[in-house]
Design goal:
mainly alpha, Rna Polymerase Sigma Factor, Chain: A, 2 domains, about 70% helix, about 220 residues
Length: about 220
């Protein structure tokens, strides 16, 4: 890691970092990746439903974003602009994949932080149920639900990221929530933020791969 990265990570805004990268300080791109790896992963994973492929798409999405940083015009938040690029890359990849056999790999369980083995097992089972319910949503519903309710984007930002209208975002979100049954994920005893977690090892792997390309 560049020695300046930890020092600048907490004091520079996204826009300031983008300006410095465009001016030639490519090492600072690592800050943006680490800030938004979780968000980008969740968005890509919502489209693809495949962990390994999600990592590959994330790397390509970051490279696409880096190549087009000069086109970031601040009309939306940088995170929204980045997620839109990632979603587009994921959709393109899914379209290619559908030319062959559909991947049926289920999402791996997220480790529970429950204090004792019995509660940990129960929490893992409930989390698995929740994740599989989200996984079972149709493509459009799942993407909207993850971006709005899991990742916390606004209606406008979700519409921008998915290139659909705000009214369609609202409709799909309402239907997704209805299908998931609000009481199901309330009873599960885990937070939505814990779903589709992006672990430190995966974060480091994606950052290292992208920075190697940029070098």
């Amino acid at each position: 890691m560049n020695a300046a990265v930890p020092l600048l990570r907490d004091i520079l805004s996204d826009e300031e970092i983008v300006e410095r990268i465009v001016a030639g300080d490519a090492a600072l791109f690592e800050i943006l990746m680490r800030r938004y790896n979780q968000s980008v992963y969740r968005a890509v994973r919502a489209v693809l439903r495949d962990d390994d492929q999600a990592e590959d798409v994330m790397q390509q999405a970051y490279l696409n974003a880096y190549a087009h940083l000069r086109q970031f015009e601040r009309r939306s938040r940088f995170s929204t602009w980045l997620i839109r690029i990632a979603v587009n890359e994921a959709l393109a990849t899914r379209g290619k994949r559908r030319g062959g056999e559909e991947d049926e790999t289920m999402m791996e369980l997220v480790a529970s932080s429950a204090p004792d083995p019995e509660q940990q097992t129960l929490a893992s089972e409930l989390r698995e149920v929740m994740q599989r319910e989200v996984e079972a949503l149709s493509d459009g519903f799942r993407a909207v639900f993850v971006l709005r309710d899991v990742e916390g984007l606004s209606t406008a930002e979700t519409a921008d990221a998915l290139a659909i209208s705000e009214d369609l975002v609202k409709t799909r979100l309402h239907r997704a929530r209805t299908q998931l049954r609000d009481n199901l994920y309330r009873r599960a005893g885990v937070t939505l933020e814990s779903l589709f977690a992006f672990g430190n090892a995966r974060c480091d792997r994606v950052v290292a791969a992208v920075m190697a390309h940029l070098a």
